[in-house]
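In the laboratory, one determines a bound structure by crystallizing the protein with its ligand and collecting diffraction data. In a computational setting the workflow is compressed into a single prediction: the sequence and the ligand go in, and a structural description comes out. We illustrate the idea with cytidine-5'-monophosphate.
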Amino acid sequence: MKDVIIALDFRDKKSALTFLDRLGGARPFVKIGMELFYAEGPGIVRELKERGHRIFLDLKLHDIPNTVRGAVGSVVRLGTDIVNIHASGGIAMMEAAREAAETSGTQRPLIIAVTQLTSTGQEMMNEQLLIHGTVEEAVLHYARNASAAGLDGVVCSPLEVSLIKRELGDAFLTVTPGVRFAEDQKADDQVRITTPGQAARSGADYIVVGRPITSAPDPLETYLRFKKEFMGGIHAYTA
Ligand code: C5P
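The predicted complex, in structure-token form:
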């Protein structure tokens, strides 16, 4: 099920709720990242769930398998819909995360892996991280590991979606930030960007959009435009 996820990159609950109140009755799928979660704690997840939002909790967990197992258990019990971990933690860590989600006693969220952060360039990856090859090769390798560990998909750049889908199949989910309208010249700090239409055509399952919606003069209208261009047809005006 394709959808547009709004990144709630706000410093506190008040700012996040003020923004969401501007969306009228719409209850979009939202992403809570470290900034908001660390400021407000688990209560922000419960509160937004109660208001009817689906939640992608973007905490990018990365630790020894046993610690990640415990952490995933805790975040799953909050009622999250998508959680993520770093693929660079290795297959055993990703398997521990999946097992924790499966045995948490609540509905299992989708678990996806961060491949390479979009802030990682090839030179930095080769020289500082000592990972050889191109970023694309590293992303694909991490995606294969995530699939082997039984995860549902990966976070990746929109430009890597078709490669991953070709290799790992259509059911393996791709969640992509870095999406802007064609006429929108302001890419902020995103380097590898694409449009919602191109993301849809490449096979992306979810796009994550922050500032183009949160900073828009009319965020509801902009959100619906993203939905229309990404999902088209019948879902166009279902907020
Ligand atoms: O404002 P913008 O649309 O650029 O926000 C994109 C969101 O996706 C931010 O919350 C950012 O942290 C997140 N993200 C990203 N690149 C990644 C992983 C997550 O931009 N590789």
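The first strand starts at residue 3 and ends at 7. Keep in mind that any predicted model is a hypothesis to be tested, not a measurement.
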